Amino acid sequence: PQDQVAGAGGSATFHVEATGAPPLSYQWYFAGTEIPNATNATLKLTGVSEEQTGRYWVVVSNALDFVVSDKASLTLLTGDSFKIISCRE
Fold it and tell me: In three state form, how does the secondary structure of 39-70 look?
């Protein structure tokens, strides 16, 4: 998953792509804790708040093995903070 930036009350989406012998299972984690019902390749957070900022990762597994993803951070933009996310000529 890639780092995400979201405004307060906004949304953020983490995604992972994995290959292996099916079926593949997914379990997302935040700050060392399993996120209940977060068992898909995509994790969508809505109504983002300060309590949701931190590091997220996913464990992908099948009957043979499991892999732990790199950690991705969620940063909350507050107040007069902003970030340019794309630029076109």
Answer: CCCEEEEECCCHHHCEEEEEEEECCCCEEECC
In degrees, to the nearest 5, what angle opens at C-alpha 61 toward C-alphas 60 and 65? 130
- Residue 48 to residues 15, 44, 62, 70, 79, Cα–Cα distance (Å): 17, 10, 31, 21, 14
Q: Which two tokens stand for residue 72?
A: 């991705």
Q: What is the dihedral of CA 13, 71, 32, 62, to 10 degrees?
A: 80
Query: In angstroms, rounded to a whole number, what is the distance separating the alpha carbons of residues 53 and 31?
Result: 9
CA distance 60 to 40: 9
In tens digits, what is the pLDDT along the chain, a chain of 89 residues?
999 999 999 999 999 999 999 999 999 999 999 999 999 999 999 999 999 999 999 999 999 999 999 999 999 987 655 666 677 76
